[in-house]
Specification:
The protein has a single domain, classed as Class II aldolase/adducin N-terminal domain (L-fuculose-1-phosphate Aldolase), CATH 3.40.225.10. It has seven helices and seven strands, in the order αβββαβαβαββααα.
């Protein structure tokens, strides 16, 4: 992708997250540019990022540039450890937040939840992460998972692309909705779980699974025409 496309994609994803209610005044998203740099959205409420407003290039190693939000250091630590990750989203989905306050995260219950087949770890601390050691510990706990929930403080979601990461935010929130409804009905302890084999089979990327959710969540955005993808993009 060209730099113009990358900048536009970050803005489009940011606005989509806000429009879907996955972020509010707080949250941020980023896209890996190369092994040593990533692009993070403007440091403002994501729904208020207008077309054309530039993000900031952040080093994967080293101090955060001036004006970048403190928790972007979590993105750094994840990119350092996960060469498979090309996009990171810090979000505040409502169902995920409610479930996390009970010290719980979604389990492998349904098709969308299958994409979290490596589990969804719980960062059991409601405080903001404002230093490198905390961010590193969180990235270590994320491990190979696609998402980590922070107790009373939202979630981190990662993907091989922003298209995938945005889709997984939707999936995570839907999985939390299912979990809360089963708990409310008093059947969570007896409801079936997907086996790892079932989850592996279900968590497919074929059939434009991620792209169709991206199209749904970003429909009507003013900058979609600026995003061009090469054949290597998921």
């Amino acid at each position: 992708m060209s730099r113009v496309s990358q900048e536009a994609e970050v803005r489009v994803a940011a606005r989509a997250l806000a429009n879907a209610g996955f972020v509010h005044a707080y949250g941020h998203c980023s896209l890996r540019l190369d092994a040593e740099h990533f692009l993070v959205c403007a440091a403002k409420p994501m729904g208020l990022i207008p077309p054309g407003e530039p993000g900031t290039v952040v080093p994967v190693h080293g101090p955060l540039p001036e004006g970048v939000l403190g928790e972007v250091r979590i993105h750094q630590q994840i990119y350092q450890r996960r060469p498979d990750v090309n996009a990171v989203i810090r979000c505040m989905p409502m169902q995920v937040m409610s479930l996390s306050c009970a010290g719980l995260t979604p389990r492998l219950r349904h098709g969308m939840g299958a994409y979290f087949k490596d589990g969804v770890p719980l960062w059991d601390d409601p405080q903001l992460l404002r230093d490198d050691s905390q961010a590193a510990a969180l990235a270590e706990q994320l491990g190979r998972a696609q998402a980590l929930v922070m107790r009373g403080n939202g979630a981190m979601v990662v993907g091989g692309s922003l298209v995938e990461a945005l889709t997984l935010v939707f999936y995570l929130e839907d999985a939390a909705r299912i979990e809360l409804q089963l708990l409310a009905a008093g059947v969570a302890d007896h409801a079936p779980l997907l086996s790892r084999e079932e989850a592996d089979r279900r968590a497919t990327a074929s059939g434009r699974i991620f792209e169709r959710m991206w199209d749904y969540l970003t429909a009507g955005d003013a900058e979609l025409n600026l995003i061009t993808r090469d054949e290597r993009q998921p």
